[in-house]
Structure formats: structure tokens, C-alpha cells
Amino acid sequence: MSGSTSAVGPVRVEARGWGWRHAGRLRWALDGIDLRIAPGERVLLLGPSGSGKSSLLHALAGVHGGDDEGEERGSLLIDGARAGGARGRAGLVLQDPDSQVILARVGDDVAFGCENLGVPRDETWQRVAEALDAVGLDLPLDHPTSALSGGQKQRLALAGALAMRPGLLLLDEPTANLDPSGVAEVRAAVARVLDRTGATFVVVEHRVDVWVDLVDRVVALGSDGRLLADGPPDEVLERHREALLAAGVWVPGAPLPIERRADAAGSRSAQAILVGEQLAVGRRRGAVVRAGLDVALAEGCSTVLTGPNGVGKSTLALTLGGLLEPLGGRVAASAPLAGRLVPEPIRWRSRDLLTRIGTVFQEPEHQFVASTVRAEVAVAPHALRLSGAEGSARADEVLTRLRLDHLAGANPFTLSGGEQRRLSVAAVLVARPRVIILDEPTFGQDRATWLELVRLLRELVDDGVTLLAVTHDAAFGEVLGDRRLDLVASDDAAASAPTGSAQ
Amino acid sequence: MVSSAPRLRFVDRVNPVTRLAALVVLTTPLLLTVDWLSAAVALGIELVLFALAGVTPKLLVARTWPILVSAPIAGLSMLLYGQPEGTEYWSLWLARITDGSIELAVAVTVRVLAIGLPAALLFLRVDPTELADGLAQIAHLPARFVLGALGATRLVGLFVEDWRAMGLSRRARGIGDHGVIRRVATMAFALLVLAIRRGSKLATAMEARGFGSDTPRTWARVSTVGGSDAALLAIAAAVAALSIAVAVWAGTFNPVWS
Amino acid sequence: MPAQGGQHISSPVPLSTNRKGTTVHNASTTPEATETGAAAAIPSSNRWRVVDIVVASVIGVATGLVFLFWNNVGYAWFSAADAVTPGLGGVAVGIWLIGGVLGGLIIRKPGAALYVELLAAIVSALVGNQWGIETIYSGLAQGLGAELVFAAFGYKRFGVLQAVLAGAAAGAAAWTLELFLSGNLQKSAEFLGLYFVTVVLSGAILAGLLGWLVVRALAATGALHRFAAGRDVTERV
């Protein structure tokens, strides 16, 4: 008997004709859900975005809001009692690592759930130590949470849920915002936790390969908010393969219908369009992340910039793009790119950058400035002082090309993740820059959006645009890695030189 | 909030809630009078005490320059528009410089310093978590609100990163060189959108950890008060009492309601 | 004023989803949707939900950061105007009052205006500004001014009228408190009269009207989808 823990065993989940509708909506996000999950069962929940997967998870965790936020029908039970009735029975880990760290220190953050459940102090700290051990976070209790990597933050959130001793563990796309090493960390931690606790487990994720070996059942929801399939992983993935692919799910083993760029040979002799010489980069003066970098972007080629987290890939890309000032050395554009201007992009005017180097930011919302999609795309033509007719013709062209024309009047902030990504690219394309720099363009995208985006970028390179993409995405590199820059983790100047700049 | 600040002797051992209380005790009486003597006595003692606690002149200027700048400005307004009394030296429309307004101007300048400096220096180093623990456990403010506010303060670091990224993106989008006001307005608005989104997600994460239910909460960290806390409060009360008493004794005491 | 005003956000696709897959209510012009929105607009309870507390706190903290900026920029204006003109410095005061208006309009719960303005003041004071503890008293008074207006309407109406009145009331409260805190009673009656007019006008416009516009634009982004304020964008008048 460990203290006063009524150590909850694995729970049974049962939905009978359950449905959920958000306040102010006519359509039920989920409806007629009949589902039984046995204690200790491990379930992967799939479905297209908007199919209500998150709503189901939130309802099971009892956090889908009160009557103000929507209404439910049917019943959703955990061990025969209404879900959400007993706090702490279900532990939930969400997608965004940054938004679910609650307190400033690691130990306090894990203890938060226990405090809310009224667990006595001594037992709380004992549980904190156990939970941190279970997720493999070997850090001092007063370690600042702001200094954690994405994968560590997700493991922290898992520890916070675990310390509540839940009988049901719910994960809502826990690895969508992580790089490959973060994904591996979180997956290993979850596997260990499940082995220790035997808790019932439900995970929502569109990257199936991460979880498929860990679950014994796959449940798929259709776009109508009803159950589409339910059964053992192999069987469901096989039988409903086409429907799942159409829903944007990354079905393991499904080949990507897109080929590596063919004329990589032709680009081998390409001139450098942008070079960095003995570059030192950093976000602020005096905060050099990397120094002594020599890089060159080959004109008309696609280059991928890879390397572990925190080595300064994004910082290097922003510096090459003329947005951050080099803290040492210099960036120079080729004469055809610079035209009548000085070679250093950082000294160009903001307007002059538009037609030369376009940058697509990792977080699309950071670059939105207008209240409609159309106005967003019109920002660059306006800054370039194009005539009204020319400006609108160009805006219409990119909106159509990126299938955003039907959303022209929508507010950019209301778009889905995939739509926001396309808009952020459209807003850059409209100025027809000769070089495009993208920071993690495929981060967290579902398969459908991924394909669409990669096809578009390939077309651009085929048309002669020079591309630089910071990415962790191996499949992206397969298709678009004409050249590779690999920034390795080392403070040694020799080792920090990018390797393998030609194929 | 400012964790890079140097540690102060004595002050850092006092519970942040006590520091807040001491600030109220010390400066509220000074707000009741506009006279140069009470403010000057308080300011003098404060400077000595903070110097003893380890505040160097350099640190003083670095941390309190907005106060040092604004004090004479507040005085200037009083100089021009303070109630005229005695000899008039200069006037233009409604502005009149008189014996009375000069005295008021000096008083207001010293008063701003006497009231502003302790706030800045007592909270040179304050850990928001400790402050929140104190507010909930010692001052017994509602825990849901205290912890909600604490969760929000943690997002500040993210806001700073958002702000930087948005600044760079404005340059990338061709609107980085003109219309500062408009640009800052679009960034402030986008920041508010991101902040509310993050807040909504944080609320969900907090609820998922059982926050906001009716179960009585326990506290993993104990917030305590002791001898140092009593001492700081006593010092604050003594400084306030002494300053007012000196002013009353010297006849300069000038309550704001007179 | 037409219901949609200049911010017509209804798109050809009435339903869209945000990144997490939860659905977001876009303003729709169909009468059914408007009705549902209107029904949801009446808060079912005056009890604060967790999301009310956390988002109010986030707004308070963000507003406090704006104050830190304004404490330099706005104060420069305030003092420059003060030095050349009697009382016209009040024109800059409005921005310091916006917390209460934003809190009241978005959260729609008793105490929201007071809480947000007070928290913003505390953040501003603890990070360090020229006014010290006065800031917290000011936040209390200004928040209370705005709060009284929302209370007078029974926490049921949150339109532009209420916003402007709340801003003005916050200004009046600020003016009253300054009589004592800044020793303004020692200033001439002409100064005080002019100062009152400018502070109240500034509160009505820079806090009230601007705050209302900001909330309306926020609602159009879908960020307020967990709040009644975000679900009845088509209902606003």
C-alpha cells in the first residue's frame, strides 16, 4: 500500500451512441459512437482533421468545457461512471509542447496535478520522483522548464499526467511538433510507462508508424464523425488503406507518389547564387550560435539544411535570407541576384528582398498581417507598387495555384494547419522571388498536405527557382535534396563546416 | 521576474508577499501628503537601507532609471500648474510659476522617488512561483486565480520569441521599412491572437491535471513567513511613521485632501 | 450599424477547422447559424471556468507588457503634452485603461474587467515602473470604473456602447484617484477641468472604442471560440 494512493488500475471505456456538438454549430462533430475499450487495451485513433478525434479525447479527460462550449448526447463512461466525473482517472498529453508546460520548474510542474487532487505533500514528491524516472527525465527538480527541448517538454507533460496515477492515458498528437529524435524519446517513454502501469491507452496521431507496434487495436473515424473501422492494426490498415490515405493518414509502407528531381545532374555545374563566408550567426548581438561557416547555395537547385536541434539551422537560414545580421563574416548575393544593389542582403531594403529572397517561416501565424486571405496575398504586390490590375492578376494566380481561391474572404487565422502553410507560401510566391527559403515547411502536416506542398516546391525548382529548406523530414530530403548541408553538433570550427555540399 | 539581478542581503530572505505588504505599509502613508520633508526623510532612509542591502549606485541607476527620469517631469507639471500661492515669477495662459508651485514641484519630485524606488528595488529579484505560493497560502487569495495568473506569466518568454519572429517576418514581407505604427499594431494584434490561443490550450492542460475542481488543493511547496518578514514590516512601518512625524513636527505636512 | 460592419468575415466556406482539428465557428450568414450563435451568447453561468481564468490572466499579462512599452512612449507624450498644455496630457491615458475593457468584453463574467486591469497593473509594477505601488492602486480604481459599467448592464450587454462607457468610467476613476495619489488636488481648477475632459475622452476612445474593435477582430480570427464573445460575431452591434 503506497501511502493513500487508491492506485487506480487500468480502466474500461465505453461509449454508447455518444455525440458531441460545439456551441454555435449545427453539425455534430462526433455522433453515434459505439465503442468499448477493455482495461489495459492500447488503441490508436485515426481520422481526417475535423473528424472529432480530439473532441473524443477531451471528453474522456473531462476537459471539453461546460455547457457553454457544446452539448453531448448518448453516454461516455469510464468504469461505468460518467467520463470527466472523477478527475485524475484519465491523464491527457496534448500536441503543443510549449502550451502545456504549466510551471517554471520541472518538479513543480509534475507536482501540479497531485496538488490539485489533494495528494499529501510527502507523497506528492515521491510520486514526482517516480514519474520523472518513468519518463526518463533525469533532471534536477528545480531545472527550468523553459530550457527543455520539445521532446523533453512532452515527456514532462507525460510525467505530470503519470503522477496523477491515471488508469487511462490519452495522447493527442503528442509527437506532431517534434523532430525525429524527440519523437523517438517520447515513444520510448510512453512504452516504458505503459509497461509499468498497464494503463488503458488511447493515442491520436496521423503518423501511424510511430505507434503501430505499441498498440493492439486501431479505431478510425470518418469525416462524418462516425466510426469507419475498428480492429487489429494490420487488418484495419490493409482493408481501409485507401480511405485512410485519402484522409491524410501516413499509412506505413504506402509509397509516396512523387519522384526525386530528375535533372539534378544538370544543376551540378550551377553557379552559387548566395554565399556565406566565414559566417557567424546568432539571433542577437553577442549571442553567436555558430561561427566559421562557409556555405553556398547553387542556383536553380534545391538544398536541404539538416542537423540536430539547437545547432543554429534556422538562424543560418534567416541570416542567408537577409533577415538577421551576420555576427561575423558576410553573406553575398551573386551579381545577377543583387542586380543594382550591394551584394549583402541585410543591407537591402525590405521591399528589395521581395523579388530576390522570399522566406517562409516555420510558424505561418508569425507572418500574417491582413484580415483576409486575399489581402494577405496582396501585401507583396502592394509593397512592390505593382499596378492594381497586375497585382490582382498575380494574387488570383497564386490563390488558384495553391487552391486557396475558395477561401479568399476567410480570415487567415481561421484556416487549418495545411491551409495556413499554403497561404504562407502563396504570400511569398506572389512576389516571384528567385530564391525561396523555408523553415521546416512540412512540420506536423498530414500526408495530403505534404504531397501537395512537395509537388509545388518541386515544380518551382523545375522552373528555375533556388530553394533552401531547413528540415528534419527525411522524405522531403529524398525528393528535394539536390544538395545537402548538414550542420553537425559541435563547437569545433572544423567540424562545423557543412558537409557534403554536392551529391 | 528579473532573475539576472544580483542577490540582496536580507531582502532576498523575505517572502515576496511580505515584501509586497512592506511596500504598501511604507509608501501608502507617503501618498497621503504632498510635502518635501516627509518624502525627503523617507527617501534618505530608503537609500541608506538599500545601500546596506547591497544596492550599488550602478545597480540603482540601471534598475530605476525610468523613475529617475520621470520624477523631475512630474515636478515640472506641478511647477506650471500647481495651485498658485505667493509671489508669481512667470505666467503664460494657465501656466503660472509661483512660490507655492515651486514648493509643490520639489515635493512631488522627491515624492515620486520615495514611492517609486522601493517598489523597483524590493522586487529586483522575485520568483513568480514564490510570489504566487505566498499570495495563495499566506494572503489566502483565491488559488484558482493566483495559479491561473502564474501559468500566464510563464508564457511571457514565448511572447518575446513570437515578437522577434514577427519582426523578422515583416521585413521578409516587404513592409519592414515604413509605417512603424501600423507594423507594430499588426504585431501587437497577432501577439494577442497567439496569446489567447496559447492561453486556451494551457487552460485545457491545467484542467487535464485536475485544476479548477472542487477538491481541496494541497501545496507541494510551503510558503512560510518568519522573523525576517516581521523585521521588514517593522522597518517599513517605522520609516513611514518617522517621515510623517517629522513633517508634522516641522509643520510641512500637507495632506492631499486639503 | 449593420451587424457585420466593416469586418465581414463570412467566407464561402462557413466551416473551417483549426490546426488541432477542433472546429471553429466562422461567421455565417445563414439564419440558423445566427440563431445558434445568439443562443450561445448568453452566458449560462457567472461562475468562472478555468479557461476564463487562464485567458483573462494571459490578457492581463499581455496588457501589462503593453503598459511597460507605453510607460515609456505614452509617458513621453503625456509629459510633453503636460509641459506645454494644461491637462492635455490626459489624451495619452486611454491605453493604460484598455485592460478592463478587453477583460469585460471577452470574459463576460463579474470581476473580469477588474481582474484583468489589476493584473496588468501588478505585472507593470513588479517589473518596475516610475509609479511603484501607485500603479496597483490605479489598476484597482481603473478596473473598478470599467467593472461598474458592465455591472450596470447586468453582465448581459457587451456592445460598443458598453465598451465606450467602460473606457470613460475607467478614465473618470483614474482622474479621481490621481486627485489624491498624485496630489492633483493641489493643482488649479482649470487644469483639473481640462484634464478630466481629456482623460475621459481618451478612455472612451483609446480604451473603449479601440478595445471593442480589437475584440471584434479577435473574434474574427477564431481565437475566442471558447467564449461567447467569439461565437456571436454576427450578433454584435
From TrEMBL, chain A:
GO CC annotation, single: ATP-binding cassette (ABC) transporter complex
Presence of keyword Transport: yes
Superkingdom of source: Bacteria
Keywords, sorted A to Z: ATP-binding, Nucleotide-binding, Transport
GO molecular function: ATP binding; ATP hydrolysis activity; ATPase-coupled transmembrane transporter activity
Domain ABC transporter: from-to ranges: 11-249, 274-503
Family stated for the protein in its record: Belongs to the ABC transporter superfamily.
Protein name as it appears in the record: ATP-binding cassette domain-containing protein
From TrEMBL, chain B:
TM region(s), chain numbering: 20-53, 65-84, 104-126, 138-160, 180-196, 230-250
Any one GO cellular component localisation term in the record: plasma membrane
Membrane topology recorded in Swiss-Prot or TrEMBL: Multi-pass membrane protein
Chief place where the protein resides: membrane
Keywords tagged on the record: Cell membrane, Membrane, Transmembrane, Transmembrane helix
UniProt subcellular location: Membrane
Highest taxon listed in the record's lineage: Bacteria
Pfam families: CbiQ (PF02361)
Keyword field contains Hydrolase: no
PANTHER family for the chain: SLL0384 PROTEIN
Name this protein carries in UniProt: Energy-coupling factor transporter transmembrane protein EcfT
Source organism (scientific name): Agromyces tardus
